[in-house]
Amino acid sequence: MDDTANADASTAALRTQRLVLLIAILASFVSFLDGTVVTVALPAIQRELGGGLATQQWVVDAYLITLGSLILVAGSLSDVFGRIVVLRAGLIGFAVASVAIAAAPDPVFLIVMRGVQGIAGALLVPSSLALITSTFRGPAQAKAIGTWTGATTAAMLVGPVLGGMFVDLVSWRLVFLINVLPIAVTLWLLAVLRHPDRRLPGAKVDWLGAVLCTVGLGGSVFALIEQERLGWASPAIWGTLTVGILCAAAFLVRERYSRHPMMPLSLFRNRNFSAGNLATAFIYGALSLNGLVLGVYLQQGAGLPATLAGLASLPSTVIMILFSSRVGTWSGKIGPRLFMTVGPLVMAGGVALLLTVRHDFDYWTQVLPSVMIFGIGLTLTVAPLTAAILGAIEPERSGIASAVNNAVARIAGLVAVAFLGVIVGGVLDLRGFWQAAIVTAAMFALGGVISFLGIRNPRVAPPTP
Fold this sequence. Notes:
By secondary structure, the protein is mainly alpha-helical. The protein folds into 2 domains: 2-206 and 260-454, MFS general substrate transporter like domains (Growth Hormone, Chain: A, Up-down Bundle), CATH 1.20.1250; 207-259, no CATH class. The chain has helices at residues 2-37, 42-49, 53-81, 83-102, 107-122, 125-135, 138-169, 180-193, 207-230, 235-257, 271-300, 306-311, 314-334, 337-352, 363-366, 368-391, 398-418, 420-424, 430-454. It is globular and about 65 Å long.
């Protein structure tokens, strides 16, 4: 009788784990997909609604500003209201914002709705990862994170492919409706799961910190993007930049002394957590910059249709899908340091190969080798990076730890995209493309060096006799 009960309990636990992993993947997939699917749609949006490089930057960064600044609040909201409640609210809000964007009559409305979409997206990723870390333990957790990482990062890579097909065959507007089906499926799975929600007694939301963080990011990004049009001498530029920097500094002070900080600075006392997040800043900033530059240049510079521009990254997607889970398992056995060092350096080498691109463009010899090597490096990096950071923090703080790491990643992408005009000199021609490739490769290389110097493999407990 006891054996039967144990078998039933084991089967139920396994079913719960599978459902949790699938829900976490789908919910995060929505956020990651929408962050990248827009890349190949930018030229079509510009042609229909108007605007230059600055408008294209804002379509990307409006989403990243609210996503990056409020993803920290989402970690606290998960503790206060429960992870499943927050996840469900994020999915519904994301769907509503996506429909509004698809009907946008002008660039301003589209950019505002992208900001709203970022708010909803901020609720998805921390809750998804927190579900995984609270359900899985030990090597199973490392493998689950590897699977989650592979699927969600594949969304970042497959997004341009889907986006390109929709732009060429239907309309750029339908690009933003791609996520409606996975949202509906995820909401249904949440109803099926019947998983007890977890709330942290006494947890509160740091709303003042959220405002300071949002204004700090918004002011700084506005200055970086609009300086190309208004000039650094404009009061609108140096004024917003000053306000942004002051609010960012005030945010750090607030988090230092708040009784309920949304970004506990004590987390950074852990060596792997602090070094991993510093590496994340360079690696994910480079990822965002590389994705935007490659997607736009292949259309506007090399003259490819949106579908082919999106397909350019398909080899990386295939590599991620095939090997991310396996790399996560290896990382769980031998430690993340080797992978986090070698992976970014391989990505740097892959991006450096983009310097072979010429006016007489040829994808097979000038871009494909770069994409293949880049995909190998990315696969080696992402799962071990996530596992190293979350594995360094105790499980009860996994929600806020994942929120901080995801905020660092999105903010890094936000700042990198905001600097695009400065990097390329305001025009994304071939020379600007080369300059962006050099900067991106250098950022990846720095991420590898930081990982080598800062990350330490966790000690493996000796087997019990």
